[in-house]
C-alpha cells in the first residue's frame, strides 16, 4: 500500500515531462520567439513544480488519515447490540430447552401413571383369580367351586382397595355391591347393564365429575354362563392433579433459574465481549490518525487471538504509514532538485545559441534522471503485485555468463567471473538480471577506474548464491541495513550521478519476490560483497 500511494504521487510529479517536452519543441523555433516562450514555460514550470513540491512536503508532515480523504463512515449503534443479541439467543435456546424438557417430563409421568394404574387393576384381578382357584369358603371350609357369589363376598370382605380404588361386584339377581367410591358408579344403570353383559374382560376409562376413572371389568362364568362381573375402578384424577402441580412447580423453578442464569450471562457476556469493544475503540483512534493504542492480551482463547492479530495489524499499519511519510518526504526532496535546476536554467535562458544548447543538454539530462526515478518507483510499486514475476526454468551458468557480459560494459574496471553453479532454478530471468546489474552498477559507482569487480555463483544444495564483490570504498556497519531503504545514502554520500538511491531497494524487492534474501559483507576502505541467496526449486 505504501509503494502504490507513493508511486501514484511520483507519477503526478513525473507529469513534468510534458512541459519539458514543450520546452524541447520551443527550443527549435527562432531565437526571437524562443526567449519569450522559454520565459513563459519557465514561469509555468516553476509554479507547477513549486505546487507539486509543496503538496508532497505537506503530505510528508501529515498523517495518512488527514490527507483529504473522506473520514470513515460512522454507524450509530446500540452500546450493547451484540451483547443483547447473544443474550437473546441464549435465553431463547435455554427457554426452549426447558419447555421441551417439561413437556417430555409431563408425558413420561403420565405414561408412568397409566402403567401403574393398569398394573394395580391387573393385580386386583389376579388376586381375585387366585382366591377363586386356591381359596376355600370360610363358611364351609371347602373350595369355592362354582359359587361365584361366595367368591365375591369373601374377596370384598378380606381385601381393602388401594387409595382411590373401588371394587364393584355385580351378581345376577342381586343388587350391585361396591366399596366406598367418590362417585356412585354402581348406581349407573346403563353402565351396570353393559358390564353385566360382558363375555370377556374389558379395560376402559370413564369421565366423571370427580375426574377420569380407569376400570377393568372381568366376567365370572359358571358352567360357561356368565353369572357375575367383578369391576375394579381407579379414580386417577387426584394423582393427575398432583402430577400437574409438580410439573407447574418445576416450571416455576426453571423460570426463576432462567432469570438468574440470564442475569449471570449478561455479566459474563460483557466480560467476554470487552476485548471486542476495545478493538472497536482502538480502531476508532487509528481512524483518527493515532497508532499508539494497543489492546491488552488476556488469556489464550479466541478473543485473545483476535486481540493479538489486531495488535500485529496495527504494528504493520504504523510501520507502513511511517514508511510512507518518509518516502513522500524523500521523493519530494529528490524531485525538487531536478525541478529547481530545470526552472533556474530556463529562467536564465538567453539568445546565445551555444548557451541554449548547453541549457538544453542540462534540461534533457535532468528530465532523463526524473524519468528514471519515476520508472524505478513504478517498478517498486509493481513489486507488491502478484504478477510482478514471470518465473521459468533458468540455467544459472548461462545466466551468469550473459549478465557478466552486460555488466563488463558499465565501466573501466577489472572484471572477474567465477561461475561455478550449474543448477537450473525457477526464476524471472529479466528481473534477476536487473537485480544483478543494479549491484554491479553500484559496485562501479564505489570503485575507481581499474578497480576489481568480481561476479560469481555457487550451488549450496538447497539454495544457490549469486554474488558481486568490489574493492571500493566499502560501507559503514551502521549503514548495512538502511542502504536498502528507498532514497537511502551511505555515510560516504557517494552515489551514481544519475541515481536516486533506489537501486538497492529494487534489488531487495526483486529478491523478496523470489522468496530469497540478501547478505552483505562490507567494511570501509576494504570493499563490499553482496550475495543473493535464492531457493533452488
Present the secondary structure layout:
Elements: H1 2-14, H2 17-26, H3 31-60, H4 81-134, H5 148-158, E1 165-171, E2 177-178, H6 189-196, E3 202-208, E4 211-222, E5 225-235, H7 237-287, H8 302-347, H9 353-382, E6 392-395, H10 396-407, E7 414-419, E8 424-427, H11 429-445, E9 452-459, E10 463-470, H12 503-513, E11 517-523, E12 527-535
Parallel strand pairs: 7-9
Antiparallel strand pairs: 1-2, 1-5, 3-4, 4-5, 6-8, 9-10, 10-12, 11-12
Helix pairs in contact: 1-8, 1-9, 2-3, 3-8, 4-7, 7-8, 8-9, 10-11, 11-12
Which key terms come to mind for this protein?
single chain, about 525 residues, alpha+beta, Beta-Lactamase, Heat Shock Protein 90, 3 domains, 5-stranded antiparallel β-sheet, 5-stranded mixed β-sheet, 12 helices, 12 strands, rod-shaped, disordered N terminus
Superfamily (CATH H level) name of the largest domain: Histidine kinase-like ATPase, C-terminal domain
Mean pLDDT: 78
How many strands, which pairing sense, and closed or not: the largest β-sheet?
A: 5 strands, antiparallel
What separation lies between the terminal Cα atoms?
29 Å
What's the total count of β strands? 12
Kindly report the oligomeric state of this protein. Answer: single chain
Main sheet: which strands, in order across?
A: 2-1-5-4-3
Instruction: Give the radius of gyration.
Output: 51 Å
Give the topology string: H per helix, E per strand.
Answer: HHHHHEEHEEEHHHEHEEHEEHEE
CATH class group of the largest domain: Alpha Beta
Characterize the overall form: rod-shaped
Count of folded domains: 3
Low-pLDDT stretches are 1-73, 493-498
Please state roughly what percent of the residues sit in beta strands, choosing from under 5%, 5-15%, 15-25%, 25-35%, 35-45% or over 45%: 15-25%
Q: Give the helix/strand class.
A: alpha+beta
